[in-house]
Amino acid sequence: MANGNSLIVTQALVKRYGDKVAVNNVSLEVQAGEVFGFLGPNGAGKTTTIKMIVGLLQPTSGTVRVAGFDVQTQPMQAKASSGYVPDTPNLYAKLTGRELLRFVGDLYDLDRQHMAQRTEELLRVLDLGEAADNTIDSYSHGMQQKASLAAALMHDPKVLVLDEPTVGLDPKSARLIKDILRQMADRGSAVFLSTHILEIAERMCDRIGIINKGELVAVGTMNELRSLGKAGEVSLEDIFLGLTGGAEEAEIAEILK
Ligand SMILES: Nc1ncnc2c1ncn2[C@@H]1O[C@H](COP(=O)(O)OP(=O)(O)OP(=O)(O)O)[C@@H](O)[C@H]1O
Ligand SMILES: [Mg+2]
Both 76 and 181 in a single domain? Predict the structure, then answer.
């Protein structure tokens, strides 16, 4: 490992589906204390990379280490150190919110008293207290997103990986999630999130990686990315579109004529 504080390390990660290379040679590191934003157009390989980091998808080649553990050869330790919030919440519909958190606490073998305390704390902070005894299939999309985050936070993971965590959330819930992620990082966790929302990447991420067609085309702080862009590309939108190729005005005019 290059650095003792690297909580996520991917090395030459590749995922192929037949002839299609979904992720090509992605090497990146996320340190303790960092919120890392993973940006890229639709189909760029964000979800595929994330699933390999959390051990849901086997890489074609390359390695992933989470909190120092190899995800393929030490999956139990790697999973015990990480929390994952998928792009679409996939929760046990017939459990209540409170039951879900206790169930997850049992999976991580938390002691009873700690589990009860943590459950109530997360329900309160995520504003799910009133719905805690209703089944999850009665929750709105945003409530399910928050329940999914609560479940990922039950064991206070060192590494938190989130696939588009704020999609479909109202401004208050989106802010709440952003604040929680910042605090997790400030307390020494590594947070890895994918997003399409450039403003989120710009405002809350310490470093940003841009992936395009499976390849990591840039990594750095906002200032470092600015220095990579052409003169005049000052916004992340300009830099992002410069690296990933936005539609030209003439092309847009073509479809509107
Ligand atoms: N199971 C699969 N079989 C074949 N191809 C796949 C499979 N899963 C993903 N792909 C392909 O891999 C590429 C990357 O997909 P991925 O879901 O990682 O993109 P993404 O960056 O998360 O996109 P989005 O922003 O739309 O969520 C896409 O071209 C997709 O079609
Ligand atoms: Mg995706």
Answer: yes
Backbone angles phi and psi of 211, in degrees to 5:
-115, 135
Same domain, 74 and 179: yes
Q: How many structural domains is the chain composed of?
A: 2
**Ligand 1 pocket member 147 (CB < 6 A):** no
What's the confidence (pLDDT) of residue 2? 47
In terms of domains, do 94 and 75 share one?
A: no
3-state secondary structure 88-103: CCCCCCCCEHHHHHHH
- Which strand (E) or helix (H) includes residue 39? strand 35-39
Residue-range definition of the domain harbouring residue 104: 90-156
The answer, yes or no, to whether any atom of ligand 1 lies below 6 A from the CB of 48, is yes
Per-run averaged pLDDT (10 residues), the chain, 257 residues: 78 97 98 96 96 97 98 95 92 93 93 94 95 96 94 96 91 92 96 90 92 95 82 76 75 71
111 in contact with ligand 1, CB cutoff 6 A: no
CATH classification of the domain holding 73? 3.40.50.300
Q: Which atom of ligand 1 is found nearest the CA of 15? A: 12
